[in-house]
């Protein structure tokens, strides 16, 4: 893996945390259980992606 690929993986990992923080805020704006479920799945998938990418490093 070259330096650019490593840097890109680090950026993606950092952004996934930021996305989850924003999603936590959006969850406060709705009470629709379907939307809350989608938000939870997105954060779960982002966490899985972050873990998988971190393991590559």
Q: What can you tell me about this protein's structure?
A:
The protein is mainly alpha-helical and 57 residues long. It contains 2 helices and no strands. α1 runs antiparallel to α2 (33-56). It is elongated. The chain starts with a helix and ends with a helix. The relative contact order is 0.18.
Short description:
The chain is mainly alpha-helical and 57 residues long. It has helices spanning 3-27, 33-56. The termini are close together.
Gap between N and C termini: 9 Å
Fraction in beta strands:
under 5%
Quick one: how many beta strands? 0
Q: Number of DSSP helices?
A: 2
Structural class: mainly alpha
**Assembly state of the chains shown:** single chain
Low-confidence stretches: none
Tell me the series of helices and strands, N- to C-terminal.
HH
Radius of gyration: 14 Å
Tell me the overall shape.
Answer: elongated
Helix content: over 70%
| Largest sheet: number of strands, sense, barrel closure | none
Average pLDDT, rounded to a whole number, is 92
Keywords:
single chain, 57 residues, mainly alpha, 2 helices, 0% strand
How do the strands and helices of this protein lay out in sequence?
Elements: H1 3-27, H2 33-56
């Amino acid at each position: 893996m070259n330096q650019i690929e490593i840097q890109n993986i680090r950026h993606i990992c950092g952004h996934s945390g930021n996305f989850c923080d924003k999603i936590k805020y959006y969850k406060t704006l709705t009470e629709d259980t379907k939307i809350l479920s989608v938000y939870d799945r997105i954060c779960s998938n982002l966490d899985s992606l972050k873990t998988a990418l971190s393991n590559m490093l």
